[in-house]
Amino acid sequence: MVAACATAPGSRGFFAAAPPPAQTQARLQAPPPQGIDAVLYGSPVAPLGAPVAIAAPMAYAATDEGPYTLDSGDRLRIVVFGQDGLTNSYFVDAGGNIDMPLIGSVPARAVTTNQLAGRIAEKLRQGYVREPHVAVEIEAYRPFFILGEVTQPGQYPYVANMSVETAVAIAGGFTPRAFRKTVTISRPLNGLVTRMTVPTTFPLRPGDTVNVQERWF
What we know:
Blueprint: H1 22-28, E1 37-38, E2 61-62, E3 75-80, E4 88-91, E5 97-100, E6 104-107, H2 113-124, E7 134-140, E8 144-148, E9 154-156, H3 164-170, E10 182-189, E11 192-199, E12 209-212
Parallel strand pairs: 8-12
Antiparallel strand pairs: 1-2, 3-4, 3-7, 5-6, 8-9, 10-11, 10-12
């Protein structure tokens, strides 16, 4: 059983070839922020209608993500103490909800396991259980995706503490045309899609999309 709290260490943003405007140069004289220094661009893999973070070249943006939050595809083990009929495994569905007996649909997207436990307990207090005690743990994370210059691109189960290198190995390794120093990761973050260029040692999160680019020479 996997505890549902994860943070990712940072990666360094990259620089555009053209010189930035004077006001941008002034901002960049200060050292970049701690955490993930990611350049944000529109993501080609974002769902239709999803907002996308866009920033000017050479602008740093900190993306300290904090505790892991739930989304579609996560499988949860929910225990309601003393209520065997409610204790079970539940999937977060495509709408970002779980469906439980008695209380029906409970929103789970973008909340932590502790926050979801609080929501479930609040609903159970509404005439179902007098003093509910609820625990939520992650049984299995939502999958990650890997595209581009790997032998077997596609969707794969996420494994805790995996890196880009692990993802590439799971997908059969690099193709002969692959650029092997960095990859592009598209990651949902605070309602936006963040696109980052990172080294192959970078840790992945559930739901990430890894794109391995073709080398130019």
